Amino acid sequence: MRTMSANPSHRQHGFTLAELAIVLLILTVLAAALVVPFRARLEADRREQTRRMLDDIHAALIGFAIVHGRLPCPTTRRNPLDTRYGEEEIDGATNKCVVGSEGMLPWRTLGLPGFDAWGHARSVEADPWAGQFRYRVDLDFSSAQPGVKIKADTDYASTIKVIDHDGNEITVSSYSGTESLKNTLAVALVYSTGPDLTPNGANASYEAVGDATYETGEPTTAFDDMVVWIARPLLIARMAQAGAL
Fold first, then answer.
1. How far is 30 from 227, CA to CA, in rounded Å?
2. Are 82 and 104 in contact (CB under 8 A)?
3. Transmembrane ranges (predicted)?
4. What SS3 string covers 100-115?
């Protein structure tokens, strides 16, 4: 009769602690490698989304000018509970913009979103302007005075200059007399503060007076704003094509 061993030998299967540690290390490295391109792709998607929004804003501003004979005024209302929050602000006494410098895009007046792909809606007055589109317009191209509309010879009330990262002028900044009708000064400008939610470069130097300088260019480690503007010749051309002059 064959006797069975009371303690048979069994082969052990599975990972040792050392092997398990190696597997976890490999998984961690792979996960980290995937995070970087994912974030880069997400950032690229947000920039593309914001670029499309800026294109829509550019088109809407020109459309507004064609319909109303002027560009809209900025908004500065801080309280989201205000019934006119997001609408342009016109001084009832002068029929000109309440703010003659930089304000926020009158997104409700234009029927568009008021913030970029990095921003969010504000719910209370104390909320920051995170991701809200900034807007500046020339006062003579936004006058709401009765009977006053943009014409082919409408002159500038201020200088809205755009430069590149090296300080080179993209729009002409000097003008006089009839020469003012030939240059490419901006009559309106809109920009997104980008992923850092803060104006960068020349855009960080808020200028309360009518004249102002803004910066545009490819994103860098120190600059991520996205800027669009309407040059006078383009606005006049679009309005003429639509029979609005």
1. 37
2. no
3. 20-42
4. CCCEECCHHHHCCCCE
